[in-house]
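Lecture 7 notes: from sequence to structure.

We start with a single chain of 166 residues. Read the sequence below before looking at the structure.
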Amino acid sequence: MKEKDQKDRDWDREMREVDRLLAKLPEAEPTLGRGVPTVPVSPRPGLGVGAVGAGGTLPASPARGRAWITTWMRVGLRLALGIGMIVWPYSHACGLKLVFYLIGATAVTVAGVWSALTSWKRRLGIAHTLSIILIIWGLGLAGRQLLPRLYGKTPVPFFCPEPPTP
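Now the structure, written as tokens:
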């Protein structure tokens, strides 16, 4: 009995009704329901497949020109900071010098996060991969100093011991 009901339906009339209702939506696509095929676009929050973002723009494409250069300059400078931490010119065994070294390692990590966000936004895969490596490098630099002090078998002091008095 259901098959007979399906065959008797006027699909053209029903599709016109659907098109009319869709046209009333505030963010309706202008070509929707007019026989013009839509290109599927990767869904974004609040938008369905085939939808166009606010202002009629499609999702971001890989960066070109000035955006590409500035992103690579940021990544390059931050990589130089990370590599520079290898040749840290001061001892960083304890005390205030250790604090400054840990601030430098934190700066490497934060710089990596910042570069990762920028390179992700501008769709630069290699720059993003280098930024992730920079984050791991900064965490490794800090962990190399902090883990023995927090979990080591032999205590390593944060603050330098007082020299013995004669």
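The chain has a mean pLDDT of 78. Keep this in mind for problem set 3.
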